[in-house]
Amino acid sequence: MTILLSDPRVAAVPVLENGEQLVRLPRSFGPARALVRTGLAVRLTLARADLPGGYDLRVVEGHRSALDQQAIVTRYTAEVRAAHPHATGVEVDRLTSRFVSPVAVAPHVAGAAVDLTLVDGRGRALDLGTPIDATPEESEGRCFFDAADISPEARHHRTVLSRALRTAGLVNYPTEWWHWSYGDRYWALSTGATAALYGPVELARAAA
Questions:
Q1: Which secondary structure element, helix H or strand E, spans residue 55, and what is its range?
Q2: What are the residues facing 113 on neighbouring strands?
């Protein structure tokens, strides 16, 4: 069974903040030049080097402020309530966390997560089954990494992406094929680490 970010087991993971700075990814990862922790940046570089020829990574988002995270939570919670009018408050929170994490444990707020995709050698986006940030409702569940209702080509691309990122030490959030993290609470729970390496971080600590 998929563990969601709203699961109390995620919040129970301790954080032993290691103090790594936020660094901006080079432009070769895409024009967003996302901010991530140093350890994550290193692992993304390793993952890119491990991709088969003709493939590359395109990172579209990294660090997110707590305010931005809460805005996404608020907006999507309203969509979930509209789509599931008979759901209890607890169920709404659970359904919401399929797509966006509670602020307190959010990997993006810790600078520990990226939203990314696979591109070809010319930088053209490849088919991975849905656009990045497609909600479970609008994609009819095809945003889930292991969704069955995607083309063989999209399945192959997800496999290529997964092999490189997992080998580099990242973990996927199973309801979002594009979301990968390292060093956060969800990563720690998924890998059996005794503690997360990164807690919430503000932009004031970012390196140029």
A1: strand 55-61
A2: 181
Closest CA to 105 of 179, 183, 174, 184: 184
User: For residue 2, what are its two tokens?
Assistant: 């998929």
What is the Cα–Cα distance from 75 to 89, expressed in whole angstroms? 15
- Give the 3-state secondary structure percentages of the chain, helix then strand then coil, rounded to 5: 40, 15, 50
| DSSP type of residue 149 | S
The answer to whether the CB of 51 falls within 8 A of the CB of 79 is no
Per-residue model confidence (pLDDT) at position 203: 76
CATH hierarchy code of domain 8-205: 3.30.1380.10
DSSP state for residue 124 in the 8-state scheme: P
| Phi, psi (rounded to 5 degrees) for 70 | -65, -35
Contact of 26 with 45, CB cutoff 8 Å: no
Q: Give 24's pLDDT tier (boundaries 50, 70, 90).
A: very high
Q: Which residue has the higher pLDDT, 95 or 44?
A: 44
